[in-house]
Structures are given as C-alpha cells and as structure tokens.
Amino acid sequence: MFEVFRKYISDKANLTPEELEMILAASIPKKLKKKQYLLKQGEVSRYNTFITKGCLRQYRTGNDGAEHIMRFAIENWWISDRESLTTGLPSKSYIDCLEDSELLLWPRETFNELKTKIPELHAFEERTLARSFNATQNRIHIAISYTPEEKYLNFVQSFPTVFNRVPLYMIASYLGISRETLNRIRKHFAHK
Amino acid sequence: MFEVFRKYISDKANLTPEELEMILAASIPKKLKKKQYLLKQGEVSRYNTFITKGCLRQYRTGNDGAEHIMRFAIENWWISDRESLTTGLPSKSYIDCLEDSELLLWPRETFNELKTKIPELHAFEERTLARSFNATQNRIHIAISYTPEEKYLNFVQSFPTVFNRVPLYMIASYLGISRETLNRIRKHFAHK
DNA sequence: ATTATTTTGTGTCATATGACATTTTTTTCG
DNA sequence: CGAAAAAAATGTCATATGACACAAAATAAT
User: Fold this and answer.
1) Nucleic acid strand C within 7 Å of A66 CB
2) Which CATH class for the B2-118 domain?
3) pTM tops 0.90, yes or no
4) How far off is chain B from A187, nearest CA to CA, in Å?
5) Fewest beta carbons within 10 Å, which of A60, A65, B18, B103?
6) Distance between CA A100 and CA A30 in Å, rounded?
7) Are A80 and A45 in contact (CB under 8 A)?
8) Which residues, at least 6 apart from B17, have a Cβ–Cβ distance to it below 8 Å?
9) Does B141 reach chain A within 8 Å, measured CB to CB?
10) Which strands form A67-74's sheet, in the order they lie side by side?
11) Average pLDDT of chain B?
C-alpha cells in the first residue's frame, strides 16, 4: 500500500527521495472492512488520511436522522473531516467504508511537523485544498441550478469510476434527490 | 477605507505595524457604483479583493442564461473568483456591485510576494481559506438536505445583515429556489 | 445451496414547486 | 415631485417530486 502513495505523491509533488521516505515513515497503515467507521459524528478527527485501496463515504445526518452524503472517496484521494481536523472541534460528519479499504494515516501534529520540515509538502497541501475548494464551488453551482436529471448525468460523467462502485440510493443522497426520482430518470434513459 | 482594513487585519492576524503598512502600501483602492462589474465571466481574475464598504455578489449563469448566485459579500469580506485567480484560467463567474462599494485590490503577484515576505500573512490566508471551505461544506449540506423553508430560515439567521440589504429574488437564487416559493414561505410566516 | 440482507424497481397518491401572467408596492432617478 | 424602473406579491395551472408501500432482483452470508 505504500507503493500506491509513492506513485501518487511523486506525480503531484516535487519531493526528494529522502523527503518521500520521511513522510512514509511517519504514516500509520490501517485496514478497515466494509461498513466499519473511520470517524463518527461527535468525535474529533485526528488523522489526515490517504486511501490506497477501497472506497469510503463521508456523510452528515439531518434532524430526522437521514443520511446525506457529502462525498465519496476512492484510491488516491484524501479523506478526513477537515473542519474537525483543523479546529479540534467535534466532527459533524461520519466517515465509513463502502468496501474493504486500506489507508495511510498521519496524526495532525505529525503532519504539521512534516509540513514545516518539507516546504514542498506544505505547498502541495495548499494546491490540494485549492482544488478541493474549486470542486466544492462547482458542486454548489450544480446543487442550486441543475435539474435532478442534469445532476445525475453530470455525476455519471464526472465520476464514472465512483458511479460503478456505489449503490444508486447513495448517489441519490449525494445529489440531494430521492431514490425514486433517480429511478425515474434512469428509466427515462433506459429506452433511448 | 484603509482604516477599515487596518481594523480588520489587526484583529485577525498578528502583524507588526511595518508589515501592515507594507501590505496597505501595495493595495490599489477602487470605487465601484451599483451594478458595475468587478469581474466578468471569461475574464481572468487578477486581483485579491477586500471590501471596505458596500455589497457585492458573485454569480454564474446556467445554459438558459439564468443567474445563480454563488455568494454575497459585504464590508470586511474578501471577494474574487478564487479558481481563476489561482489557476489563471478564465473565470466562470461574474462579480458585480449591489451597492456603491469601496474596495482594496492586490494584484495576484503582488500579494504572493507579500506572503513570502510576511509568513503571518500567508498563515492568515490559509486560515481564511480553511474557514471558507468549512462554510462551503455547510452550504452543500444545506443544499442537499434542507427544505426550502429551512434554507430560508437558516439564511436569515446566518446572514441577517446581508438579508436586510439584498433583494429577495436574489436570496431565492442563492438558495436555489424560485422567487415564488420564497414568497409563499414568507407569507406562511407573516401571520404567525 | 439456502437463507438473509441489501439494493433496485414500480405503482399510487398528495402536494409542493416552478412557470407564467399580472398587479401592487417600493425604490430609484431625473 | 413625478415618472420610470425595480422588486415584491398574488393567482392559476400543470407537473415533477417526495412519500409510502410493496415487489423483484441482486448480493452477501451462513
């Protein structure tokens, strides 16, 4: 599982071999089975987490207890409750596994130390956050302006690999539409 | 208008008086009248912008040409198309004034130089982005899980000052609901 | 294999929503 | 102050959506 990370980070950041190994040496490998939780609402998120294998979701719950999926994440993505991780406040979200998964964890403090020692890692994280932020802006634009059908088609096109690994009712949750509406949309496209 | 910024930044960042003045000295004051544009879709966003007075909105347009408001910003807020600003790509959004406004602009390169000279400014910007990101996550959660009524009430409570300065149909746009639905909700609360 | 569980698909129904058209009210500006 | 423009409110209508209940299919577990 280290190899996945080596490949990923070599591609994205300009690190010396020593720096890369220093980062890896500080990581904590962890395996989780499907349905196991990485983080629960109310807990404090303490790890910066990279996915080397598997699929996870982050979700919040509404007043009624319904689950609303904030995001999916698969291999080569980072996942954490960023708000809780940076503020130290209790997490508003759950993170659990949709498949058996393999992760690399860095405790927040450890990662911060690495960032001060390795400026390029700091810069890399800034770039990552910037891209996350842009993706999030797009998501908002879609949420407030697309029709359910457009939301669905956009998702399939944007995340084909996620689409094929995740149950439809979770995609509906992610899109903010009902399971049934998603079915109607799919039915509509079936005979075309 | 400099005074507004001095007060703001003194409160948020631990800068020396010299650093503060260095930052201010690099700024470009600008006044815009209501309905004037700070940025148009397709242009490249070249300035990091702080609002000392007034009210602006950032919006994107859909296929049909309809305006969808991404955010409002008033005194003591920053505004720019962050994606365009950091990537140099054409902006997906418009930014215009809802009131006569006074702004301080820093060209992207100038601001970056300031950040390298003043680490605390760099750190401050990171904190700001982190909080923006968290706000954005909340917005997504609301968009995919709240009813129109809940969205409205949440907005009034979260941004009372903006609420009182902005036309209702723009709030509807921001919330991703129709003007008429917003009226119905308000009517519903009127006689209660 | 068989059972249990999860996921997907359907049908019916009530209603909230968007779309459109029009009027009223408020604000802006000459 | 008066005219013009902008914003808000209202009424009607068609329909897409969510909610519920249940059936079918696929997947996982024993």
Assistant:
1) no
2) mainly beta
3) yes
4) 23
5) A65
6) 11
7) yes
8) none
9) yes
10) A37-39, A94-97, A55-61, A67-74
11) 95
Average pLDDT over residues B2-12: 96
**What is the C-alpha to C-alpha distance for residues B51 and B151, in angstroms, rounded to an integer?**
26
- Give CA separation, A121 vs A12, A96, B66, B138, in Å: 10, 27, 41, 27
Q: Is the sign of the CA dihedral A160, A162, A166, A172 positive or negative?
A: negative
Number of Cα atoms under 13 Å in the Cβ half of residue A148: 16
Phi, psi of A73 (to 5 degrees): -150, 135
CA distance B44 to B46: 6
Query: Which two three-digit tokens encode residue B51?
Result: 């609002």
Cα→Cα distances A94→A19, A79, B17, Å: 32, 11, 44
Which among A102, A53, A75, A68 is positioned nearest to A171, based on CA atoms?
A: A68
A191 has a pLDDT exceeding 80: no
Number of alpha carbons in the 13 Å side-chain half-sphere of residue B8: 19
Distance CA A146, CA B136 (A): 18
- B10, two tokens: 């003194």
Residues 6+ apart with CB under 8 A from B21: none
Q: Does A137 touch chain B (CB under 8 A)?
A: yes
User: Which tokens go with B163?
Assistant: 């609420």
- The end-to-end CA distance of chain B, in Å, is 42
Nearest to A82 among B133, B141, B174 (CB): B133
Domain ranges of chain B: 2-118
What are the pLDDT digits (tens) for B129-162? Answer: 999 999 999 999 999 999 999 999 999 999 999 9
By Cβ distance, the residue of A83, A133, A139 closest to B82 is A133
